[in-house]
Amino acid sequence: MVNEESIFELAVKAIDDKRAENIVALNMKGVSLIADYFVICHGNSDKQVQAIAYELKKVVQEKGIEIKRLEGFDQARWILIDLGDVVVHVFHKDERTYYNLEKLWGDAPVVELEGVLG
């Protein structure tokens, strides 16, 4: 059965496999109606940002998980992958500091990823 927790773990592992930098996960339950989790990371080049997003797309589609929205792939500055209860934000390193989603959603608790990435 595919639930939000397994989608969350799958997403974190997929972006980590493509060497996403500074992966931060926010528990959005009770903070936002948009999703239960935001996963935020960045790549150091346009190609890496696209590779991270492409890997995530491939992995979730192989598991039969629907991608509700994928935006920003061609520009590779901020790619948003909406998996329903889990929304992944893949930034270019230059854009991440500018948008600073971690601060914007400062009310959301940070999820410890040690158990996921082991």
From TrEMBL:
Report whether Transit peptide shows up as a keyword of the record.
no
| A GO CC term assigned to this protein in UniProt | cytoplasm
Pfam families from the xrefs? RsfS
User: Main localisation, per the record?
Assistant: cytoplasm
**Entry keywords, A to Z:** Cytoplasm, Repressor, Translation regulation
- MF GO annotations: ribosomal large subunit binding
Q: Any one Gene Ontology biological process term?
A: negative regulation of translation
Annotated localization: Cytoplasm
Quaternary structure, from the entry: Interacts with ribosomal protein uL14 (rplN).
Name the HAMAP family on file: Iojap_RsfS
Function as written in the Swiss-Prot or TrEMBL entry: Functions as a ribosomal silencing factor. Interacts with ribosomal protein uL14 (rplN), blocking formation of intersubunit bridge B8. Prevents association of the 30S and 50S ribosomal subunits and the formation of functional ribosomes, thus repressing translation.
NCBIfam families with a match to the protein in the record: rsfS_iojap_ybeB
Q: Could you say which protein family the record assigns here?
A: Belongs to the Iojap/RsfS family.
Q: What is this protein called?
A: Ribosomal silencing factor RsfS
